[in-house]
Design a protein that fits this description.
By secondary structure, the protein is an alpha+beta fold. It folds into two domains: about 100 residues, Phosphorylase Kinase, domain 1; about 120 residues, D-amino Acid Aminotransferase, Chain A, domain 1 (2-Layer Sandwich). Helix content is about 30%, strand content about 30%. Strands 8, 9, 10, 11, 12, 13 and 14 form a seven-stranded antiparallel sheet that branches. Strands 1-2-3-7-6 form a five-stranded antiparallel sheet, with helices on one face. Strands 4-5 form a two-stranded antiparallel sheet. Strand 2 and strand 3 form a beta hairpin. Helix 1 packs parallel to helix 6. The radius of gyration is 17 Å and the shape is globular.
Length: about 250
């Protein structure tokens, strides 16, 4: 049973609803775009549809190679059925090329390819602007155990390897990305799974040849329409029905 019940949570980009199944929730993708901890925000028609299809695609691909995610199935143009989980209060960021806050924080020229991927952790708290935290802080404050941290590193780096190759096949470079990790509520032993979404909202994607940005930096930096940018990413994988292609130009 997957009928929608009451609203459980509403964030900047998504809404979660309960269902008749205590282990499943419905995730609704909104059209709102936000940046700089919601200091900049705008409604972008069709954005929720695009992220729904894109996240479905990436999550299904990860599930197929035994990187577990919360994704079960797409229900309609804007909603997915996903596994309910206990979110670990960390944003896990993997970086392949210097950009964004890393470049500003360390004075590294944007576009510099890193010698190896960097994994960073940010504490999920909007009131604190999601501060960068260390592994010792994570274990000291019991946000995650040492064993879980090891699993998170493995999930993050395997995801990075797989997505980098998948995207490169359509001439997209995975500059960096953010994932969230949850503890499965239906599996014994607190199995860790990727939750939230994987989309141009959570990844920096550059055209491999032109370096054109096709991610939320288009919105952050006023470089055009993210509906156009996200549609280009989706079309490179031929994800959208014909009626959607004309609806989000």
């Amino acid at each position: 049973m997957t009928s929608k019940k009451k609203k459980l949570y509403e964030g900047k980009a998504k809404v979660l609803y309960s269902t008749d199944n205590s282990y499943c929730v419905i995730q609704h993708f909104k059209d709102e775009a936000t940046a700089f901890n919601a200091k900049k925000k705008e409604t972008i028609e069709g954005k929720g549809v695009l992220n729904n299809f894109l996240s479905e695609f990436f999550m299904q691909k990860l599930n197929s190679i035994n990187i577990p995610t919360h994704f079960i199935k797409r229900l309609n143009m804007r909603e997915q059925l996903v596994e309910k989980c206990e979110i670990i209060p960390l944003e896990v960021v993997v970086r392949n090329i210097a950009a964004g806050s890393l470049s500003k924080r360390l004075g590294i020229q944007e576009g510099t390819r890193l010698a190896r991927p960097i994994v960073e952790f940010y504490y999920k708290d909007d009131s604190l602007n999601d501060p960068l935290v260390t592994e010792s802080q994570i274990t000291t404050f019991e946000w995650a155990s040492e064993t879980e941290l090891g699993e998170i590193f493995e999930i993050a780096l395997r995801t990075n390897d797989f997505l980098s190759g998948l995207l490169l096949a359509v001439d997209l470079t995975l500059v960096d990305f953010k994932i969230e990790i949850g503890r499965s509520l239906k599996s014994e032993g607190d199995k860790l799974i990727i939750a939230d979404e994987i989309s141009p909202d959570t990844c920096r994607l550059w055209d491999s040849k032109t370096k054109k940005r096709l991610d939320k930096d288009v919105f952050r930096l006023n470089k055009g329409s993210i509906a156009v940018a996200y549609t280009e990413v989706a079309n490179r994988f031929d994800l959208l029905p014909k009626n959607v292609k004309s609806a989000v130009k």
